[in-house]
Design brief:
Elements (H helix, E strand, L loop, with lengths): L19 E2 L2 E2 L5 H46 L5 H14 L3 E8 L2 E13 L2 E11 L5
Antiparallel strand pairs: 1-2, 3-4, 4-5
Helix pairs in contact: 1-2
């Protein structure tokens, strides 16, 4: 309900520069700007955390792939001994941006553990690990 002491606004009586209406500041001036900035900040925060979750998932997948391929490479050289099999597994894991942290033979099976480092948020580096086992088919 309009106040009776406010002069009516007409096209011929627009508010003065600076948001003054009849000598008083307009209280709603700039409210949309603050709301828009707050909504933008919410989108940035959720986007950042969403990207961090996606980065963790991708690093986990990369670690699993590096471990699987490393185990297969090691199993192909299992007859040559533990050192040769693990060196082959380490080489292939490294080519997939992984670091072999564990490797040993169990008969003709090769068991490997691979870690992949990733940056989840700026200044926060984490490690994703995966294990894999490969060997001959048993019937």
């Amino acid at each position: 309900m309009p106040r009776t002491d406010d002069p009516p606004r007409h096209a011929s009586n627009p508010p003065a520069a600076g948001g003054l209406v009849a000598g008083r500041p307009d209280r709603q001036r700039g409210g949309a700007t603050v709301l828009l900035l707050a909504m933008g900040l919410v989108f940035v925060v959720f986007g950042t955390f969403g990207a961090a979750i996606v980065a963790a998932g991708m690093a986990s997948q990369r670690a699993a792939v590096a471990a699987d391929l490393g185990a297969l490479a090691g199993a192909a050289r299992a007859l040559d001994g533990d050192a040769v099999a693990c060196a082959s597994a380490s080489d292939l894991a490294g080519r997939n941006d992984g670091r072999l942290v564990g490797c040993h033979l169990d008969g003709l099976d090769v068991l490997v553990t691979v870690e992949v480092a990733f940056t989840q948020l700026p200044g926060l580096t984490r490690v994703a690990a995966a294990r894999a086992r490969a060997g001959p088919v048993r019937g």
